[in-house]
Amino acid sequence: MNKSDLLTVILGLLMFTLEGINYSIVAPFFPLEAAQKETSKSIIGFVISTYDIAAALTPIVLSNFIDHYNKRFIFLAGTLMGSVAVILFGILCYSPPGAQFYLSAIALRFVSGMGSGMVWSAGYPLLVSVNYAWTNMIIIGWEITIALGIALGPPIGSILYSIDGFPLPFYVIGTTEFIATLLFVFIMPSKTNHNSGKEERPNLKKFLKFFVHPAVLIISFISMCNSAMFAVMDTILSPYLVKTFGIQQNSNGFIFSFMAIGYLAATVFGTGINKGLGTYIFLTGAIFSMFGTLLFILQEWINALANIPIVLTALFFIGLGDCTSGIASYVIVENTALRYKILSLQNIKLICSIWTSCTFSLGRIYGAAVIGGLIYGNFGMFTTFKTSLAMQFGIFLLNVLTFLLSGFFKRIYLTLPDDEVKTAFHKSMVISKSTKEERVHLIKES
Q1: Residue 31 and residue 90 in contact, taking contact as beta carbons nearer than 8 Å
Q2: What's the average model confidence in pLDDT over 408-416?
Q3: Under 8 Å CB-to-CB from 242, ≥6 apart: which residues?
Q4: Distance CA 96, CA 159 (A)
Q5: Residues 331 and 282 sit within 8 Å (Cβ to Cβ)
Q6: Burial class (CB in 10 A: 0-12, 13-18, 19+), 413
Q7: To 10 degrees, the CA torsion angle through 298, 300, 306, 310?
Q8: What is the pLDDT of residues 41-52, one digit of tens each?
């Protein structure tokens, strides 16, 4: 095992986690600080959601530029933008109240969201190119570390905020990511693509054609609704804890951390991806998430269940379910693209990773604006939980129907390294007699 390659992958996964933390670190204390800066609740909500808007738009724009040559540059540019923007966000505590404060906050959150969109879109195909033999491990780590970062943001933010106020959380996370970026530059040098033939580049037209294909559109809708639960919990959990248990927003980080434990537990299902069980893992994750939401609803009906241990259990299962489904979603959409011959093998990882980043962000916008905003704002806490459960159950049934029609109730796998080699060399080289080591060498060279 090449230690340099392993360290490169570990650093890459760390930066996925840090980008997730960048998103959610503001949840426990920013609303309180912003209110003191004469910022209305609606503007506070817009400041937070600006991140998702940028993270959703950036992958779409990237689809017209990203290729196998510049994915490293895009990844590093994204981490640099994210780290600098989050450090500058910490300086906002010195800003005068009013428009100067919230306009600066909107601009910095947008830049930070752009950085995340770049990192999450280019990161997976970049890390896979380090060593194709680790493809399954990297796809599992990619999904889990992003979700884990989002779940760890609130507890880390709460702890650092309690130590030295508003700036410290942003200084610590931003500086850590900046240092990790510098290390990544030196550890993973730029590699030259040695393809002898003309490379097929992805572009916006190909991405949109892929995205609106009926089979992909259904999977996209399912994926967006699943990822919406992240934003739903961000929006309604803090008010629920204040109202029911008197736990204030600036001290609820411990409660949020149980979603992170659920994300970590999802690694258990990673071996199932290697064995081709992606479809069953996806559905299992949906069941876990529904069970977690049901526990919140039962607290309204059964007073004995309205306690912190039940809340922690519910968050654990929601985190476990969302991340388990997320792990499997990539392999499902990749196989959908192959089955319907929507994408070539050469650019499938680039476009599918862009798709994953885009649908994840769109799902968060939907969850925050529609479920956490419109429904919660007009109908209250438990109606929101009931609506979420109804949505999850409907999506589960749609999952089953889609997989039945697609023939996915069988073993499905990520694209094989041999296929990558055949594509990179345009099937012009005979490699059937090559040894396994020679194939890995050809893959890395391509």
Answers
A1: no
A2: 70
A3: 248, 249
A4: 26
A5: no
A6: middle
A7: 30
A8: 778 777 877 888
pLDDT tens digits, one per residue of 323-362: 888 888 888 888 888 877 777 666 777 788 888 888 888 8
Instruction: Give the integer Cα–Cα distance in Å for 38 and 224.
Output: 34
